[in-house]
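User: Here's a structure from my thesis project, written as structure tokens. My advisor, Dr. K., wants to see whether a designed sequence matches the one we expressed. Can you design one independently, without my sequence as a hint?
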């Protein structure tokens, strides 16, 4: 047993309670301090995991040791010169990839939700005994985790180990009945543990993931930085999310996203799932090993500020879909549809004109991760816009070097300098490395695209590849862009004047009525005084429903004034709305029919992943 030893048991699955022990062989003689992390790396929000500790007590050889509360996350044990034992219970009923969840069907936990940090001994190796469930559970449970095994059998309960505390909390654990499928990528064993009911073709999933994983390993260069990798996939009715770890990732997806047996076509849902897997896997390099200096080491008790999330999440978002194309899983047309959807997401938010991606990164803790009804007006996503910054940067480097270098080379250089050495990436290093690769200063580009809010030079960059950026109004509330699209009503009159009108707000159906969700900054609804949360009931004296709102609006043209009846709280209010022309913020991309040779070559090299 190690000097620090944990034991965790699904003690009361029906009540969602894990029982945890932490045994410290040599506690700090002045009084040992322990704490729970306030956040989990990869998800930039203070979550105070200690709030789910139900009770905690300390003892030494059976004799109680006094515990003093220091703050919301920490305790100090009374001085004790021999082995110290902490025992506590953790309530686990969080359905996300970020915390812990336990019931009679399955259990899941991240170490950051269940394991106390022993202050001053974080760099010590530790052992963990994962115990089988107590009481009634469904089926025969196993263990799926990338946590290195000490004496436990493969996928079995027993003893595991970690080299230090940071590693301990970087291997999520899945308990229960899961389907397991294996594949090898560049000589490394990969496994996928699938929890939840499904009828999907897991062999197909494994074959497709193998191509993605091999692509990423070869992108950064063999050998892979790990000797085992695990995808933990939990299937649910509705849900989506992923979290990266050093040799695994946790994923939540719809059970309908899995490919069906006998079908070769890639559905939109399955393409999205492959994109999510690709994203988390790319993080194995970009953020888990090429890591901001601000995270080296993590401060687990408070916010860790960096302006670089646009690079760690945005560049990863750029390559996640691009790898699907480069590994031959999707077509060029399908990839351009995904890129155009990303452009659409960014263009639909007015916040892109207010916040830079550097600021979006820095304030992730309070803004991106704590969004409200005004967020689309106030902030920009460092994921979506970051991916577009990556696309522009990639293109710029290709242009400046006559196709002899690219963002791919920047990533490999960052891997070589920071990932392989374990040195944190300083805040200026991504820009400096890119400029080095381009052979000249890119300060102007970074100033405009990263440090300032505003538009990116997307049309000019796409032209480099013989691709034209087209914009049109959304055809409906469900229109995500990416394709030419068919609108039910004409978009322009015969003189080319815009016909489609817009309220300047999004809504969601509530008991059949449209409730405003986001009121666009300076749009028609906002100018008329309508507010997020207002429940629309009539337009020009006609009852409006979530169903007929778009049809009612089709009768008007831009500039028309209409009377809107709406409830705010329980008060009926009347607004005069001057309808605006629907904004052309929905993007699709067209490949030019007669590109010049240089454009053809640039496109082939870019999409093919060569130089
Ligand atoms: Zn990510």
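Assistant: Designed independently from the structure alone:
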């Amino acid at each position: 047993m190690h000097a620090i030893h944990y034991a965790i048991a699904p003690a009361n699955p029906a009540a969602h309670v894990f029982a945890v022990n932490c045994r410290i062989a040599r506690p700090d003689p002045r009084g040992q301090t322990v704490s729970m992390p306030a956040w989990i790396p990869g998800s930039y929000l203070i979550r105070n995991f200690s709030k789910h500790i139900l009770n905690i007590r300390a003892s030494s050889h059976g004799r109680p040791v006094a515990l003093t509360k220091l703050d919301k996350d920490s305790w100090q044990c009374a001085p004790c010169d021999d082995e110290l034992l902490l025992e506590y219970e953790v309530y686990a009923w969080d359905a996300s990839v970020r915390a812990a969840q336990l019931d009679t069907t399955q259990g899941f936990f991240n170490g950051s939700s269940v394991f106390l940090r022993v202050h001053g001994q974080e760099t010590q190796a530790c052992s963990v005994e994962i115990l089988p469930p107590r009481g009634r559970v469904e089926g025969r449970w196993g263990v799926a985790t990338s946590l290195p095994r000490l004496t436990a059998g493969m996928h079995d309960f027993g003893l595991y180990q970690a080299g230090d505390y940071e590693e301990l909390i970087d291997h999520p654990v899945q308990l229960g009945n899961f389907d397991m499928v294996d594949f090898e990528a560049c000589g490394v064993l990969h496994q996928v543990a699938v929890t939840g009911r499904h009828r999907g073709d897991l062999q197909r999933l494994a074959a497709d993931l193998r191509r993605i994983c091999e692509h990423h390993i070869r992108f950064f260069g063999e050998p892979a930085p790990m000797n085992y990798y695990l995808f933990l996939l939990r299937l649910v009715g509705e849900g989506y999310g992923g979290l990266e770890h050093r040799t695994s990732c946790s994923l939540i997806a719809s059970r309908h996203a899995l490919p069906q047996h006998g079908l070769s076509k890639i559905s939109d849902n399955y393409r999205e799932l492959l994109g999510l897997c690709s994203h988390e896997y790319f993080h194995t390099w970009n953020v888990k090993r090429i890591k901001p200096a601000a995270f080296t080491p993590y401060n687990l008790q408070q916010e860790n500020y960096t302006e670089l999330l646009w690079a760690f999440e945005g560049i990863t978002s750029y390559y996640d879909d691009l790898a699907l194309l480069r590994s031959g899983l999707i077509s060029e047309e399908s990839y351009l549809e995904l890129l155009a959807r990303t452009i659409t997401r960014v263009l639909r938010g007015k916040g892109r004109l207010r916040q830079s991606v550097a600021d979006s990164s820095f304030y992730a803790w309070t803004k991106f991760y704590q969004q409200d009804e005004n967020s689309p007006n106030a902030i920009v996503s460092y994921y979506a816009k970051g991916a577009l910054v990556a696309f522009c940067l990639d293109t710029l480097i290709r242009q400046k070097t006559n196709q002899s270098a690219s963002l791919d080379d920047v990533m490999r250089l960052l891997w070589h300098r920071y990932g392989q050495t374990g040195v944190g990436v300083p805040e200026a290093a991504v820009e400096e490395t890119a400029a080095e690769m381009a052979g000249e200063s890119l300060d102007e580009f970074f100033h405009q695209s990263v440090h300032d809010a505003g538009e990116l030079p997307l049309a000019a960059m796409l032209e480099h590849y013989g691709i034209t950026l087209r914009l049109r109004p959304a055809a409906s509330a469900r229109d995500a862009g990416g394709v030419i699209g068919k609108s039910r009503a004409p978009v322009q009159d015969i003189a080319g004047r815009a016909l489609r009108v817009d309220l300047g707000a999004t809504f969601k159906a509530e008991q059949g009525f449209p409730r405003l969700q986001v009121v666009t900054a300076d749009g028609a609804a906002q100018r008329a005084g309508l507010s997020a949360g207002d429940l629309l009931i009539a337009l020009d004296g006609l009852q409006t429903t979530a169903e007929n709102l778009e049809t009612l609006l089709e009768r008007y043209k831009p500039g028309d004034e209409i009377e809107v009846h709406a409830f705010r709280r329980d008060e009926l209010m009347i607004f005069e709305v001057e309808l605006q022309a629907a904004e052309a913020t929905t993007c699709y991309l067209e490949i030019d029919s007669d590109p010049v040779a240089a454009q053809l070559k640039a496109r082939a090299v870019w999409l093919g992943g060569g130089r």
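When you compare it with your expressed construct, this may help: The first strand starts at residue 4 and ends at 12.
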